[in-house]
Amino acid sequence: MTERPVVKRTARAILLDSAPDAAPGTPSPPALEMIVIKRTKPGEAPYWITPGGGMEPEDTTVVAALHREVDEELGAKVVDVVPAFVDTVSHSTHHAAHGVKIQHFFVCRLASMDLGRRHGPEVDEPCGTYEVVRIPFTRAGIASVELVPPSLRAYLDANIEGVRALLADDLG
User: Fold this and answer.
1) Is residue 146 part of a domain?
2) Cβ 13 vs Cβ 78: under 8 Å
3) What's the confidence (pLDDT) of residue 94?
4) Under the phi-then-psi rule, with left for phi > 0, alpha for psi from -120 to 50, and beta for the rest, what region is 75?
5) What is the span of the domain harbouring residue 12?
6) Contact 50, 132 (CB under 8 A)
7) DSSP secondary structure string, 6-58?
């Protein structure tokens, strides 16, 4: 099989945050939520996607693209950025020859978010709606929405405990 050229690279956040505290005296650790964007385009069924997007010429690294995209789409800052998953899919546009898109998924923790600071094409010239939502970071929570791409949904279903461990204090 011949190698296909990489025509696009994206950075996406598996963005986790502590859920509001459980009832007082509950011994379990705080539940985690995943912050996703519910996309609704005219004439199409809604779907949910992780914050992020394509690398731009000014991005020096994929992680720099991640920080820029999270700032644009959520007005957010993230910490504890750890590579988690890479997805390779066929991709072609009217600008680029047929090749592949490499999607880099990073698990990270929300440091701050101010939706009033959102900016960029999704905010300035939206195609449909971009609703920021929180879902429980559990198998049931992930299964409750149409999270795309399907490969990410399958990865999280198979590895949810491992993804949580990527943010563990003892990771190093």
Assistant:
1) yes
2) yes
3) 61
4) left
5) 6-20+30-166
6) no
7) EEEEEEEEEEEEEPSP-STT--SPPPEEEEEEEEE-TTS--EEE-SEEE--TT
- Model pLDDT for residues 79-128, shown as the tens digit of each residue: 999 999 999 988 766 665 688 999 999 999 999 999 999 998 877 887 88
Residue type, 159: N
Task: Pick the closest to residue 12 from 104, 118, 100 (CA basis).
Answer: 104
Phi, psi (deg, nearest 5) at residue 132 = -80, 125
CATH number at residue 75: 3.90.79.10
The neighbour count for residue 4, using CB atoms within 10 Å, is 13
- The pLDDT value recorded for residue 98 is 80
Strands 147-148 and 47-49: parallel
Give residue for tokens 């005219």.
Answer: 42
Is the torsion defined by CA of 107, 111, 116, 118 positive or negative?
Answer: negative
In the prediction, which pLDDT does 128 show? Answer: 87
Whether residue 1 is contained in a domain is answered as: no
The segments of the chain whose pLDDT lies below 50 read none
In a domain, 171, yes or no: no
Could you give the number of structural domains in the chain?
A: 1
Rounded distance between C-alpha atoms, residue 163 and residue 109, angstroms = 12
Q: What is the pTM of this model?
A: 0.89
Is position 25 within any domain? Answer: no
Distant-in-sequence, close-in-space partners of 23: CB < 8 Å, separation ≥ 6 = none
